[in-house]
Amino acid sequence: MGNRNISSIDKLADTANTATDKLADKAESTVDSARSMANDALDKADAKVRSLRDDIKPAIDAISARVHDIAEHGKAVASDTTAQAREKFNDMTNKTSAYVAEQPMKSVAIAAAAGAVVAMLLGRRRR
Question: For the chain, what is the domain count?
Answer without folding.
Answer: 1
